[in-house]
Amino acid sequence: MNIAPAIHQEKVTQTDLARGDGWSVSDVICRCGPEDKPYEEQHGPSVIAAVLSGNFVYRSDRGSTLMAAGSLMLGNAGACYSCGHEHGAGDRCLAFHFTPGFLEDVAGGLPGLRWIDFPQHRLPPMATLTPLFAAAETALLEEDAPALEELALRMAGAALRLSHADSPPPDRARDIGRIAAAARLIEEHYTEPLTISDIAARVGLSRYHFLRLFSATMGMTPYQYLLNRRLRAAARTLRADRRSVLDAALSSGFGDLSEFTRRFRRTFGQTPASYRSKR
Prior knowledge:
43% of the residues lie in helices and 22% in strands. The protein has 10 helices and 9 strands.
């Protein structure tokens, strides 16, 4: 992900955080909105960008798709693309850039993987990515260079492995706006007791049509997306803020401690207390 053309430079900031042999990572904050035209760009090195907040429409030779918080944007070296914010203002990404040699080293550790190009341009939010996003938010907050190096390897491995699964059908352009609005609603109100009926009504869809459309676009149900957002927030509270397990559960929207512990262990492979104690 490169800095936008001059017309958008005042609305896009890119801060280099760390770099090493074959990789670099930067914090990219975009304040573009519906009044700004989508800008066209070209990737330099291969890029994996973790969308931490906001959403935008990403267009490449594979069509248009919604990049919502929790998604991984995948860009092959030299590929052209454009980003648009017609459905809302602003986003923040943690962007990793990789040389071919770095990706080849990672691919060598993945059985059966022969190519380092990404066959898909997006990985939607999914439970297997939640621990990676939690680690990304913590490393960004703490400006932890060794943690970012480890995260670069984990991101590259996950992106290469998961993107070579069967490609999903492309998003339909007319559906993206409503799902973008729903994703932003969940992101901004995840601590509240949201229901499918609440969200569907806010975006003007019937409950069943909303559930089907959201699942097809995001790769998970609205409730799964809400739970993943709450778990990411809880992980940050535990690791970065060093607050108690009960505080982490309540502040992230979980009303039941046993449910929180069960879901956290299922996603992160350890208890909240164990996660909090590790650095």
